[in-house]
Give the backbone structure.
Amino acid sequence: MKIAFDVDVLAKQMGINDMVHQVADWGYKYIEQSPHPRINPFYKHPLFSKDCEAEYRKALRETGVEISSFIVVYRWSGPTEEQRQMAIANWKKIIEIAVNMGVQVINTELSGDPKQQEICNGMWFRSMEELLPLFEKEGIRVEIQSHPYDFCELNDETVDMVKSFRSDNIGYVYSSPHGFFYDKGKGDVRHMLEYAGDCLSHVLFADTFNQERDCRYIVNPPWLGPTDAVVHQHLAMGEGDVDFEGIFDILRKMDFANKKFKVGGETIACVSYFGFPDKMQIQAPEARIRIEKELLGGEL
């Protein structure tokens, strides 16, 4: 199992060299490269100039850190065909970048419109059928997560969509800060992880509050509904409502840490903290130590 740190919170504060060195200083061996304005920006075409690549590779060599995975977010679910086609072009470029950097795993979202679920569902399957041969050709494991305010937010339905391809190149991401959206506020992490089963290849660790509980979040104007706006957080484990004891218990029973996949190799446990950059010097190492203790038998 690779324990990675999602560098979103760092990319907003520092350059690539300092970002990589900071991850190394916190004791991480892997970076999950979330959308970055110089590499893989949200929704837009990937960039990654020669200068940017050289800077990144130099920092990786200096620290011994590796990239476990890229996160990309493209509108491959449309809802328009023009958006979908642009997303396909973005996918082709990020796969080229991933292969060049020796990265075999790409973590992504469905990226659709909850107000146009039928259209977006069809667009996503069309995109998957078009891209799957490329994933297979290049040896890339693409991992799907549903996300708050997407055309599908539910764990079980998204797992069924992933499993429908019966492909070693398609995996499932369980994102703990999105879990209350995955089952409409129940937070039954044990069921969700067990339902994902053998296709679970990636877990994102962060806490959040249950948006279904009265006054956990207060949204104004108060009549805004779930198709207007949604709220969640990426807090340190223990700061919200997520049942992490249940998550770690099930992951141990699944032997998640020792699973290997035909494509992309090891599973990934990624710390995905965004909420308090000022606390990260303490929270980031603490999260790594806890995951090591819970899943690898390490000691505090």
User: Anything to note?
Assistant: Residues 2-296 form a domain with the TIM Barrel fold (CATH 3.20.20.150). The chain has a mean pLDDT of 95. Strands lie at 2-6, 30-33, 66-72, 105-109, 141-145, 170-175, 200-205, 260-261, 265-266, 268-271. The chain has one domain: 2-296.
